[in-house]
Amino acid sequence: MKFELNGSTIEVNVPPRTTLADCLRHHLMQTGTHVGCEHGVCGACTVIVDGEAVRSCLMLAAQAEGTKVTTVEGLSTDDDLTALQKAFRKHHALQCGFCTPGMLTTAHALLSEEPEADRERIREVLSGNICRCTGYVAIIEAVYEARSAYRT
């Protein structure tokens, strides 16, 4: 199958029942996509497919045929951190880091569509991503601060 991954067209041959998460991690070496619950509950495996945040553990790799997939590795196109990543660092919005890729991709998808999202909307959207370390306050503040970078 063929799809765009982080701006580059790739072709990969995987067994039909391979999830997108396993394809990304084990076949394409995009290890920033973490696998936690494997049931779509924790959000650690969230990637962006055609602009939408999706749980890559619930999507078969074959379903990515012809799509544009962005992983956490693809959020930044240069050697610098994105405004969202910088805000996470500034607000100490990560601790162990396991949930961070899913939080970043989810927040990026939200702010790309809703750059004026208020704290309540950010909280609502990120409520599907589980973090056992931070308590979410710093994450919400980081996403809220990064909104200005998404405004046109």
Written overview of the protein:
The protein has 2 domains: 2-74, Beta-grasp domain (Ubiquitin-like (UB roll), Roll); 83-150, [2Fe-2S]-binding domain (DNA polymerase, domain 1), CATH 1.10.150. Helices cover 32% and strands 12% of the residues. It contains 5 helices and 5 strands. Helix 4 (119-126) packs across helix 5. The protein is globular and about 40 Å long. The model has no long low-confidence stretch (mean pLDDT 95).
Jot down its keywords:
152 residues, alpha+beta, Ubiquitin-like (UB roll), DNA polymerase, domain 1, five-stranded mixed sheet, 5 helices, 5 strands, globular
Helix content class: 25-40%
Approximate shape: globular
Spatial strand order of the main sheet: 2-1-5-3-4
Low-confidence stretches: none
Under CATH, the topology of the largest domain can be stated as Ubiquitin-like (UB roll)
Beta content: 5-15%
